Please model this.
Amino acid sequence: MADVTPLRTAAETGLSKLFEATKMKYPTGVSIAREEAFRYFEAVGLPTRRVEAFKYTDLRSAFRDAAHPAEMPSAETAKAASAEAKGFAGIEAVRLTFVNGHFIAEESDLGRIPAGVNVTPLTQALAEGNALLDRLTPVRQASENAIYQLNTAFLADGALIAVEAGAKVEMPLHLRFVGTGSEAYSTATRVLVTLGEGAEAFVLESHEGPDGIAYQPNDAVDVVVGDDATFRHARLNAEGREAVALSTLSVKLGAKSAVETVNVVVGGVLSRHQVYLNFAGADGNAIVNGAAMLNGRQLADTTFLADHAGTGGVSRELFKTVVDGEATGVFQGKIIVQQAAQQTDGKMMSACLILSDEGQMMNKPELEIFADDVACGHGATCGALDDDLLFYLMQRGLPKPEAESLLVQAFLGAAIESVSHEGAREALIGTIEAWLKARG
Amino acid sequence: MIEIKNLTVAIEDKQILNGLNLTVNDGEVAAIMGPNGSGKSTLSYVIAGKEDYEVTDGEILLDGVNILEMSPDERAASGVFLAFQYPLEIPGVGTMTFLKATLNAQRRARGEGELSTPDFIRKVNAAAEKLEINKEMLKRALNVGFSGGEKKRMEILQMALLEPKFCVLDETDSGLDIDALRIVSGGVNALRAQGRSFLVITHYQRLLDYIVPDVVHVMSQGRIVKSGDKDLAKALEASGYAEYRTGEAA
Model:
């Protein structure tokens, strides 16, 4: 068969050029297989709708060109940007600040790291060949994906957070990602969190950046949760209005471990958040929630995969999407139960509230079950606000916009109730309220 | 005072109310009885301003002001309250959040200041106690998982807090056991006052043993066909609606 040279988009060609031009500048290390990752990406290209996993989110058309990887900002720029960061700002936490995808030690609380926690900037970890790097990419399926491979290829900075066995860390660790600038740029960060046996930690993640430029963040968080350990996580996408924001959360669950994660989306013209769970040990327990509020021409994609290898795993997923204007919500969820994973209990629900005539929601739930003693289910709903409920609230004196807001807030709130940290929960409710207020 | 004049209402081209006339004076408790399908619930929804109905003629005057042009929330702020036959469950909306939002929305609409949180809580607790509503109920999402009786008590609690001028009770007795009926009726009776009037819609005379009406109206075919005192309800209980159904067939 003759060699076929596929047609490449400007963005794909641009990414190839950028990779060749910049790869020597990146920190290197044995554990980062950049070249391999980029070759994978080159082979598959930017995914289009013809790729099943990207059926509703066409990255090829979203990326008109390849933005240049952002340089390390000056100290003043970094200071100014972090001073303006609003995400989870009111919560007492240990902050690790990234500006334009670079770790900024001066704007981070490295001097206040709680006992039992070790934080190493990724560049340093790579330079010293930190043994934890072997634990990157804890879920195989994440690497079968162009977004994650691009992250690996262009990985510029990040952090390793190691929580010692038995350490119960009460102070939240806040990964604060802030963007700044007036020209489009791209970022690629990776944070690895490892929790030793019986450890507990709560990680906050906020992402924000300028409106008006089509910057391209690609952030990945890899988590390895030890046996009996608990990982709690709340993520806020408050990216700029034009951002094309890609993110991946990969979590490997040890035996009897617990994971709670919620992702709240308000920002980005296009965002895709990928969650990969690998129930490696027996009796893992995960709550994976999401709440997205979309308007204008936003598209927000949540793609979820739970792979049950261990027996007795329990997972509960609740994704709530509110669509206004001409926006589009996308949910793709898949639960895989391997043959050995008996007594798996998985329930996945996606619910959408459509507030406008032009808004739309795409749901694609899937179950792939090879074991015979399991309880798995999924559901997907789409609908408008209930006229009877609106009438009830208005009969009690609430003007229509207030009645609508109350119902929308209640709808989204169900996905946030699982956040056990009160301050974080209230901050996320505040995000919902601000969105509703802006809607008017 | 509420005056309903020649009210003519259709839903999806089917005429339900046929030139209904009714006056409820200040401080008066008027009962409306009538067979199924006579238009009683339609009347209550039209008074409250539900959208699905087309008012083709007539007016509803509350203290001389036609409320038909008002949205449901404006009517509520003017003093119209509808106790629903089937109160709705609102998952995710805490009962206290809901009560505070409604109370303050009405106060704002009337140009009054919002209640402070301690004042609000005191007010709710006092009213809840009278209706035997426990604090656990107030902590839950509105009406979610409440029994039929609890939902009706919650309706009366809202009525007590909002202090309306004109209350419509749409089959408030449906789904109530004797104890709940006693509590709910007690709550309504406690709210009877000179400046407040009630329209009590019911199928059965039983409720009227507890909430004793000043006037009883019989409704059939979308209009009031007979009016009398409380003894009319007792007569209806004995004879049934057959006499009025004949009218329907005609």
